[in-house]
Amino acid sequence: IKERKRFLGDTKHFCPVVLKENFILQPGNTEEAAKYREKIYYFSSAEAKEKFLEHPEDYVAHEEPLKAPPLRICLVGPQGSGKTLCGRKLAEKLNIFHIQFEEVLQEKLLLKTEKKVGPEFEEDSEDEQAAKQELEELAIQANVKVEEENTKKQLPEVQLTEEEEVIKSSLMENEPLPPEILEAILSEWWLQEPIRSTGFILDGFPRYPEEAQFLGDHGFFPDATVFIQVDDQDVFDRLLPAQIEKWKLKQKKKLERKKLIKDMKTKIRVDMIAKRRAELILERDKKRREVSNFFFFKTGSHFVVQGRVQWHNHSSLQPGTPGLKGSPHLSLSKC
Prior knowledge:
This protein is an alpha/beta fold. It contains eleven helices and nine strands.
């Protein structure tokens, strides 16, 4: 009752120093108050109060009322609740910026990673990656070119900065960002043009209690935080059909990859058998050529074959046997 009877200054219960310097409506502390021209002003800190008392005329209205900062709204809710759709339509209607917090984080990594980061974007399990690797190796052995989709290699490891590593870890492990990273990101929206003077709807932030606490501790005050609540069944109806189609497509690719691996192994086995058969035929033909070049001649009680002596009982050879006089057409089997 006592507070209501007080005559508040131009900035009401908000700190005039923060409004002047940062263009943010930050609630003042009732314990840090000062009176100027019969009006009460509240301040966010003792330092802000000292600045005001040194030059109060810089922080109060003169001929015209003080200009209020633009609308800043945080929009939160579970996945599938419609945050992005509502935020986009509302931003268009109010002519302010629509910022998707996690999309901003993804953009900071996308230039290097070339794909989005997070559990929902990790399409291939370790088994699937091993199957793809096996398919690549088999394709090389079989000398066969398969579709790029089936043999798409993992992107090489990229060198991320310390800040990028922290952002990646936050997306992968669903953890809050540390204060120094949040400070750099949020300052751009609250303190830098053109967003500073235009306003925004921040979609999907804060995500954790620690990030909500950070907003208050560092003076990043939204005008409102809207939480969209939705029944679980509505979320299932919105998200499940797309997830089922994604799963079906994934299973189809998995079966195609298994069949391709089986066909590759069969082809490699057939090629190896054909290669071995060709080698055996080549060896046989080589031996036949060597035998066809042998010639025999008689000298005394033995036959000489290309300088190698092979002893025979010549009594078993019939006189007049064709080829015994050095015929080049005499086969080894006849000998």
